Amino acid sequence: MKTLKNLFKHWEFILLLLLAAEFLIFGTVNPTKFLRPVSIMSSITNYISICIIALFVTFVMITGGIDIQASSIVGLTSIIIGVLWSDAGLNIWVAVFIAIAASALCGALSGFFIAYCGVQPMVVTLGGSFLYSGIALLVSGLSATPAYQGISGFPSKTAEGAFVNFRFLGKGTLFGVIPTQIVIYVILIILCYWLLHKTKYGRKVFLIGVNQQAAEYSGINTRLTIMSTYILTGIGASIAGVLLTANVDSAKYNLGSSFTLSIITAVVLGGTLSTGGKGSIIGTALASIVICILRYGLPLCFGISTQNLDLPVGVMLIVVVVGREIGHNQQIQMLFKRLKAKK
Q1: pLDDT tens per residue across span 145-192
Q2: C-alpha count within 13 angstroms, C-beta hemisphere, residue 82
Q3: Which CATH architecture has domain 10-308?
């Protein structure tokens, strides 16, 4: 019993139970369609950009910050790749490198204002979302292709029909089964987990979230560390932009513009406190998959329109987060103990 109680104290275990419950419910209602591995992996692939960005936003939120500009950086990355490849004639991989570097600079700019100028993260990243969306629109104006149409026709297939080169990132599979995007996502989970939970850098991030002043007194360069988390988010958003562009074979300035709420939801549902100091990569990854399976299973098994999927996701987030806060509230815990003692 003690072992079971200890497991329930870990938020990741609760998320695993939620995931298992989803598979049990959806698998019971429609086992033929829902329990198809290819369909499940396809649903995760469709949501993978949000999952990737959420991993990196976890770093930001653990420091006590927030990043709502990442979705704009996705579109900026996409259109930079398209314009440099299609109109400037650069090699596709050179274009990808430049786009990632530009996204890192965007993160560094916002991180500088937050860390070194003391501006509120919400204000800076909100301004950044408009700024980088505007820059993406300006870049799209440099292309001969109309902005609404998007730049397509990236290096894609062999004569046999297999995806290669740039398109392999978005559409390819390993061993003919596992989508390349899922493999990349797993690699990023491992890297982020190692960086956050197994290195000195990760310990600095947590300490800053717990008490920035104490971190400063202990010799940590808190400003540089905070700025670095926004650079990481910029890079994460650019990776998501690369994969999304390769997947849909279209470079657009507004690609990923609706990702913001889903990203924050995945991070918060994963156990990261909005006030900072607590969070985990595994929790964020599990929460992302929970949301992904929920969005996949509800339309398939219960006929819920995809336009209404934000409602159950929002309800689940509120119920789970409120329940978690109640569970950790000492006054409520004392009240339950007193009621139990009276019985």
Answers
A1: 887 788 888 887 776 667 778 888 988 888 777 899 999 999 999 999
A2: 35
A3: Orthogonal Bundle (1.10)
